Amino acid sequence: DAGVIQSPRHEVTEMGQEVTLRCKPISGHNSLFWYRQTMMRGLELLIYFNNNVPIDDSGMPEDRFSAKMPNASFSTLKIQPSEPRDSAVYFCASTLDPASGANVLTFGAGSRLTVL
Amino acid sequence: SQQGEEDPQALSIQEGENATMNCSYKTSINNLQWYRQNSGRGLVHLILIRSNEREKHSGRLRVTLDTSKKSSSLLITASRAADTASYFCATSTNAGKSTFGDGTTLTVKP
After folding, report:
1. Are A25 and A75 in contact, with CB atoms under 8 Å apart?
2. Which pLDDT does position B7 carry in this prediction?
3. What's the rounded mean pLDDT across residues A36-44?
4. A91: closest CA among A110, A76, A78?
5. Chain B residue at shortest CA distance from A45
């Protein structure tokens, strides 16, 4: 397996533009997490899905952020409109069974977003 | 706010020395995990300790968990320059929600 695949790896955009980040989890994993990492706030959990259903989106900063998981092999995180404070590295991670007690997360390489 | 808090924030040691990092958390957990992140990369899982375990070993890593104090420690023995990275603890609830601490940046000088 190629691991968790994220795209794009880097994105530079202007304030007000729509940004879409993509994630392909490991085949067979049934849970997917989106995290945001910044120097100021560290690694924040934005939302996680179990069997394609959003379980907890309490970390989504505001209505400008939305996430979907239309099927087991694909998820998107969308920011519309983007703002400079959204600049961060966004990580996607997946795991086999989040409530098993042995839920090791496998992370993607991250998408570095810069909003000018 | 984040579930876990690591200390120290930064640690600098000489190669061959041991490195100890601590993590405190706030709520009940199912398990606690430690991850490593090299600069510019994603996080990589190191070791998991369940809430009913007190100590676990994996190679040069030793993890302890004290659920009464809501704290954990990660010990890296005989450190190497290649251990230079940021180390994060993550706590997982029974519902599977995993949240991370702020991390400890370890520098091992050759």
Report:
1. yes
2. 85
3. 92
4. A110
5. B99
